[in-house]
Fold:
Amino acid sequence: MIPFKDDVPSGTFPFVTVGLIGLNVFVFLYQASIGMGGDQRAAEAVVFEFGATPCRITGACPVPGDFPSPAVTILTSMFLHGGLLHVGGNMLYLWIFGDSVEDALGHRRYLALYLLAGVAAAATQVAVHPRSSAPMIGASGAVSGVLGAYLLLFPFAGVHMLLLFGFFVRVVRWPALVVLGFWIVIQALSGILTFSEAAWGGGQAGGTAWFAHIGGFLAGMAQLFLMRAGRVARL
Structure:
């Protein structure tokens, strides 16, 4: 299922959403340029240096003279991505749902929601896997916060989806409540499965930071209540 647009009109230009997308793409291109130089170790070093590593944040694996500060990496990690599909998927969701949330909250409150959701996402993943040495990267946690806010603001907005099943292709329009509700359920089930595998296997979690998605999503919803958004559209 690939969403490509929603039915919520925006009354203002989404400066923050466009700026965030531009910044994420710029950083990704910079990452790609390092890898294209043939030095993959340098590209990996950027991820390990500026990604948010749980054990660095908790102090379980401190590094003398650590730079940047582990606290700073929570912010820098939001703008790093692991590949074209990673950055493309995050930016697609941000473009579809971000402009409507920005229009509802205003530019400043929307930016605050995005960044704080990203922080909450990282904190959630760290709390679940405090000794993990796998760096977290990506805007997924912050984007998840935008999705959580969108779900509360526009639960019945139509989301146009592209369904792909082999050679079967169909365009459908589903309510945001269904699309985003299904999305967060998948994140929760995947997170539980990953946690169980890590617990039974005696290893540490790697791959997708599912609990970061969950934490960001819930943080976006919580912030919406705290910000007392001025309007709630019922479409």
In short: The mean pLDDT is 89.
